[in-house]
Design goal:
The chain is mainly α. The protein has one domain (10-93). The protein is built from two helices and no strands. It has helices at residues 10-42, 60-93.
Length: 99
């Protein structure tokens, strides 16, 4: 698949900053909710919350798995939201906000 580089102006980057900031906050909230649901369904028993690093009742393996899953979900949701926001911005303004 061939890539086409889209140029952006300095004004497009500046105008996109508030959109990018809001979309990052939204992505964080959505990713948190997605992770809670994934964790709740992936773990046996009644463990609804993922183990945190300073909770002594969990071993290191459980804490690391939770952190890896949470990080992967956050990164994927953030990429989807940022990309969608950039495409919407491009449709509205005709300019790509990145690069």
């Amino acid at each position: 698949m061939a890539r086409t580089e889209k140029r952006s102006s300095k004004s497009a980057k500046i105008l996109y900053q508030p959109v990018g900031l809001i979309s990052s906050v939204v992505a964080g909230v959505v990713a948190g909710q997605v992770f809670k649901q994934v964790w709740k369904h992936a773990t046996p028993g009644d463990q609804e919350d993922a183990p945190k690093a300073l909770e002594s009742e969990y071993n290191l393996r459980e804490v690391l798995i939770a952190a890896l899953v949470q990080g992967a979900i956050f990164a994927a949701v953030k990429a989807l939201v940022n990309r969608g926001g950039a495409r919407a911005f491009e449709r509205w303004t005709g300019e790509w906000p990145g690069d």
